[in-house]
UniProtKB/TrEMBL annotation:
InterPro entries: AMP-bd_C_sf, AMP-binding_CS, AMP-dep_synth/lig_dom, ANL_N_sf, FAAL/FAAC. Signal peptide: none annotated. Residues 8-411 form the AMP-dependent synthetase/ligase domain. GO terms for molecular function: adenylyltransferase activity; ligase activity. GO terms for cellular component: plasma membrane. Transmembrane segments: none annotated. The keyword Ligase applies. Belongs to the ATP-dependent AMP-binding enzyme family. This is Polyketide synthase. Keywords: Fatty acid metabolism, Ligase, Lipid metabolism. GO terms for biological process: Actinobacterium-type cell wall biogenesis; fatty acid biosynthetic process. It holds the Pfam family AMP-binding. The keyword Ligase applies. It comes from Planobispora longispora.
Amino acid sequence: MSFVQRVRAQAERHGHKLSYTFVEDRRGELAERRLTFAEVDDRARSTAAWLAGRRMEDQTALLLHPAGLEFLTAFLGCLYARTVAVPSPLPQTDPRALERAEGIIKDADVRLVLTDAANRDMLAAWLREVGLDGTVECVATDALDLPDPGAWTEPEIGPDTLAYMQYTSGSTSEPRGVMLTHANLLHNENEIWRAIGSPEEGVGVGWLPHYHDMGLIGMLLQPIYAGGDLYFASPISFVMRPALWLEMISRYRAGYIVAPNFAYEWCAARVTDAQIAGLDLSSLKFALNGAEPIRPSTLRTMVRRFGPAGFSEKAWAPAYGMAEATLVITATPLGQGPLVRRFDAEALERHEAVPVVPADGGAGGGVELVGCGRPITMTVEIVDPDSREPLGEGRVGEIWVRGGSVARGYWQREEATRDAFAGRTAGGDGPYLRTGDLGFLLDGELYVTGRIKDVVIVNGRNLYPQDLEEAAREVHPALGAAAAFGVEASGEHVVVVQEVREQRLGGTSAADLARTVQGELARAFGVPSMSTVLVDRGGVGKTTSGKIQRSRTRELMVSGLLPIVHAELTPGLAAGLTAGSAVGAAAVDEGG
């Protein structure tokens, strides 16, 4: 079976009973635009017939749509036509987004860009500016005179047919096109469906970007795979007014949601008590949390703030996944709730997971980690990344994965594909997807501790950057996103680059705050060579999905391109940096 056949069967089964509804917030009033499953199928067939007329079978099409229903029908139209869809953020004025889109066009051999009428002229002008207008055509799918749905003839599409490419966000490397097949799509959607309890019907609510794996697979395509209604808004609407998401859950009686950890933090911080008072979140049974490190404090804060409105701790469903495995690898089943445990910090540095059991029954010490659930049908192994020996439970190593959701590989990158998708243990077992993530299994539960490339090694110790970043954020409310990494400059140094909102400093100076952060981290982690660099908002490198780009932030610091507010460097690091570095100059100016 192909994903197209699944969608068509669902459209025939549910017809006009189930639907997708795009919700816009217009001064507090919710405006809805709706397409039923039958209408989605009609539009997809018409789009596919048009693509077939352009001989787009097995060719790539870059989809640059704003949030809304048009992307859904264009994406499915590509699948119906056997055109390889490449979803991507709509670039507007952000130079990095424009550069990324240009890179994808060249890397994926794109000859057709699909967008909407509101953005078509802007994109066409941009293509002319970068010299691509002669080879790439830009078309507004909502302005086309499309053929009748009956004009579509289904091409030969099997499980192994390439469906679409998901370009990775580039948190640790240049973006790469992950090749996903129809079999991958079907397998991972079934994994998600089983995690949420295999419902016969249901309602989802979301706002995630459709060009990311969680938004596409977890939010947008799951309803038509499983059979259910979806109400969704734009990411911009959520960021501007996070209460909208919760109001939609309450209004439409949503049973499940999916989002990264930062979204829940944003709600807890920005939704007011007055807004909470009118909510009823008791319908929510499954709140998937994944795509980035899950903070125990976020889980507790959400329950504390929204528990009175019906948000249950049992709704939490921490999960782990990545684009190379379509989306979900492990998940917490419906109704189980999160598993949060404490582990000995020194043992974790030795790559051993030793639970801490408080003698007095209190909270105790150690490092809190949130379990990311268990594999549903995938195989997960923890392997020593150097010796390739499988490790037993309670040992930290690289997370290796195999199963039906693992992608075909990276587009036109044979070496990278071999490195990532052809992992074999010392005993020859495989092939496995080497995730590049570190973690361990304990009692069958997966705990993720960080990425191999991001681990900071100083004085023979292994420090996880997210631990440093979280500890730094807790020092003062003026502090925001942080990136922790190691620097080799006249010795080993740990650096934390942290965004600061100067208007929230109160009576504290930036210099005093930087020294406080430096002292707290040195004390908490026992590392004397700790440096703190405070930067303006936006100074910490992030991907389009909000993941911290530690390597990019490190490069900006070393090259002197950070928007520095204050740098508190150890003498060795200040001396070891290049003479022209803005960081080194700031440290000298401040006597750091």
